[in-house]
Structures are given as structure tokens and as C-alpha cells.
Amino acid sequence: MRILALDVGTKTIGVAVSDELGITANGVTTVLRKDIRYDIDEIKKLVESLKPSEIVVGVPYGMNGEITKRGNEIMRLAVKLGEAASLPIKYWDESFSTVNAENMLIDANVSRKKRKKVIDKMAAVFILEEYLQSREVVSSDD
User: Fold this and answer.
1) Cα–Cα dist 39/84, whole Å
2) Residue 75: what pLDDT?
3) What whole-number distance in Å separates Cα of residue 122 and Cα of residue 127?
4) Cα–Cα distance, 81 to 29 (Å, whole number)
């Protein structure tokens, strides 16, 4: 029951995956974006190798709680990805995932050059961790 998480940026897509029990999140890779067909093909390759049961896509919300213009663009990509991969897509508010990832890497004294290479992957980890935690809260309330 693996879950794949994506942090979709304008230039890259950060990718994380959970363990089979859906407890931990691990960074996988960063996909350099070219065009929508290429992006979907690259994510489909990861889906085929990692075999997730669903995909969580980070979507930015504005301070007013509404999905941003960029968020709508990401959701359009996610819909096409879900159709191509034949998997359910879940959306998660990723408004602070990149900031949190950046702060964690700074606290760990990771150089600016190295941070740039892993920031999107780490943001995907934050998205997935929050999503997994929300599922634990729901299941413990049952």
C-alpha cells in the first residue's frame, strides 16, 4: 500500500514514496520538467517501478484558503497523470512544504548548492509525511 507524493514546480517535480505500510516517507528523485507528455511519462515510470496504490499531489493554496492559479495548473496535470497511471489522485495543501524543507536543510547545514538539488524531493517528503499523519488521525478516531 505504497503512496507516491509529488511536489510539482515549474522546473522540477519532487518525488517521495511511503513504505509499504504507509508509515514513513522517503525522498526518491527530482524529475526535470520538459513538457506535460514527458513529465507524465517520467512519473509513470516511477509508478511502474514503485507500484503505489495512490498518488498525493501537493497543491498551493492562497492565504484566503482558495487554490491558486498555479494550483489549478498542477491539478490539471494531476488529472492527466491519474488517467495515464490508472491511479487515484489525492490533493494536499503544500503551501509551506518548500519553506519547511528549506529550513530543515539550513538547520542541517546543507550548502546552498546541495539544497537546490534536493529541495523539491524534500518538499515531496513533507507533503507525504503530512498526508500520512492525517490518515493516522482519521484511522485512530474510528
Assistant:
1) 11
2) 94
3) 9
4) 17
How far apart, in whole angstroms, are the C-alpha atoms of residue 113 and residue 117? 7
The structural domains of the chain, with segments of one domain joined by +, span 3-141
pLDDT for residue 106: 73
| End-to-end alpha carbon distance in the chain | 20
pLDDT tens for each residue of 27-58: 999 999 999 999 999 999 999 999 999 999 99
DSSP state of 2: -
Distance (Å, whole) CA 47 – CA 42: 9
* Residue 45 CB contacts under 8 Å (≥ 6 apart), including other chains: none
Place domain 3-141 in its CATH homologous superfamily: YqgF/RNase H-like domain (3.30.420.140)
Q: Which helix (H) or strand (E) holds 56?
A: strand 54-59
**Whole-number Cα distances in Å, 36 to 3, 93, 121:** 22, 22, 19
CA distance 122 to 140: 27
Which residues in the chain show pLDDT less than 50?
none
